[in-house]
Design brief:
The chain has 410 residues and is mainly alpha-helical. It has one domain (63-380): Na+/H+ antiporter like fold (Up-down Bundle), CATH 1.20.1530. The protein has helices spanning 2-27, 33-42, 61-82, 85-91, 93-116, 121-132, 136-145, 154-181, 186-209, 211-217, 223-243, 248-260, 265-289, 300-324, 329-338, 344-355, 362-382, 384-395, 400-409. Helix 3 (61-82) packs antiparallel against helix 13 and helix 7 (136-145) runs antiparallel to helix 8 (154-181). The N and C termini lie far apart (87 Å).
Length: 410
């Protein structure tokens, strides 16, 4: 009994630290992600003990990690609810083109970089996935904070993020099949990938053909019972997915995708948001707990190189996508800088590699990579005018007004 009391107090203390990190981030108008990771590292099992002061959360680490796993499930479940191929089709060719360029450029850069720093093929593929997925949460926050929701490039940004989310679902499905099933032969790899993709298609089919049945099953008037039924089913599906060697996060995402086409999707979204935010915050905190600050030194140069490449790759992809859509160089610069942030999904990709027993450096590498870009990318987006002015002097970019003025002076 005493042990349980101590455990509740320790978990409560951890939650207070999470709340403090969120308050600081909100006051500074920044994403909470870097603050939560840092506080987690400072009080993790690797934190130093100074005299009688012991800030380590050792006895409750497993409990906090489990709550963090729930955070991943809610994050991916919400993403599934937002996910819609129909939205992508309606968005037009420019978004498909921009999204394809964005994913290909970043994925190829990540794969090449992973091989360049000496990672084996699976680690290089995980690095490619980390490069290729932006942070939906940070991108949305940047657009709102900078009052750019009405800008001409915003629709393209949101479309590219949606396309990126679809890529994430496919990538995690295939990689979880490869890494978690432990197949080594070509036939074994093909079989595990086929199971993962087939499992994903099953949910697509249920979403399309079972919509009426799902609508009837979820026609529950009591909000209390509605939440219990939906969340219990989501966690069950996530757990069942792991028995098929499909990551539990993908199970949650696919379950959200299955419910996204029902008439209850908005009601579910409204119910899940507080859980997503609360448990999502614990996820980043628990990720910080798992990192030994002493191990960061070995990943600094790898992370810095990845940050530089990501910024360059995003600027290139944003410029190509924006110009193809008929946007100005200024708007195209905004695209590249806005989508450069990395956050929740990058960590989820890295965690998949860690769970599969890949090289331990993935954890500190992903922590530094996300930490730097979650701070630098929003700052660059805020100063996009200065960045554009600098690039325009280098590359000789001119707006249509500048060209007309130059012709008149000539």
């Amino acid at each position: 009994m005493e042990h349980m009391k101590h455990m509740v107090f320790e978990v409560g203390t951890a939650l207070i630290l999470v709340a403090i990190a969120a308050l600081i981030a909100n006051r500074l108008k920044f994403s909470t992600i870097p603050f939560l990771i840092v506080i987690g590292m400072l009080v993790g099992p690797h934190a130093p003990v100074i005299g009688i002061l012991d800030f380590r959360f050792i006895k409750t680490e497993e409990v906090i990690m489990f709550l963090g796993r729930l955070g991943v499930l809610f994050l991916l479940f919400y993403l599934g609810l937002e996910f819609s191929v129909q939205k992508l089709v309606r968005s037009g060719k420019n978004i498909v083109f921009g999204g394809t360029v964005y994913v290909l450029v970043n994925f190829c850069l990540g794969l090449g970089y992973g091989l360049l720093v000496g990672f084996p093929i699976y680690e290089a593929l995980i690095t490619a996935g980390m490069f290729a997925v932006s942070s939906t949460a940070i991108v949305a926050k940047v657009l709102v904070d900078l009052k750019r929701t009405g800008n001409p490039e915003t629709e393209l940004i949101l479309g590219m993020i949606l396309f990126d989310d679809i890529f994430l679902a496919l990538f995690l499905t295939v990689m979880s099949g490869l890494l978690l099933a432990g197949a080594t032969s070509v036939g074994g790899i093909a079989f595990t990938v086929a199971i993962s993709v087939g499992y994903m298609l099953l949910f697509f089919l249920i979403a399309h053909y079972g919509k009426n049945v799902l609508n009837r099953l979820l026609n529950i008037t009591s909000n209390e019972v509605f939440v219990i039924v939906v969340f219990s089913a989501m966690i069950f599906v996530a757990g069942f997915s792991e028995t098929l060697h499909v990551a539990e996060a993908i199970g949650a995402l696919l379950f959200g995708l299955m419910l996204s086409e029902t008439e209850h999707s908005k009601r579910i979204e409204h119910a899940v948001v507080p859980f997503r935010d609360f448990f999502g915050a614990i996820f980043f905190f628990s990720f910080g707990l798992s990192i030994d600050p002493a191990s960061l030194g070995g990943a600094v140069w790898i992370a810095l190189g990845a940050v530089v490449l990501t910024l360059v790759g995003n600027m290139f992809a944003g410029t190509v996508a924006g110009r193809k859509a008929g946007l100005s160089y200024r708007s195209s610069t905004n695209i590249g800088l806005t989508v450069a942030a990395r956050g929740e999904f990058t960590i989820i990709v890295a965690n998949l590699g860690v769970m599969a027993g890949l090289t331990p450096v993935l954890r500190p590498f992903s922590a530094l990579y996300v930490f730097i870009l979650s701070i630098v990318a929003p700052l660059f987006a805020k100063e996009s005018k200065r960045v554009y002015n600098g690039l325009s002097r280098i590359f000789g970019w001119q707006s249509s007004k500048q060209k007309e003025k130059r012709r008149e002076n000539a």
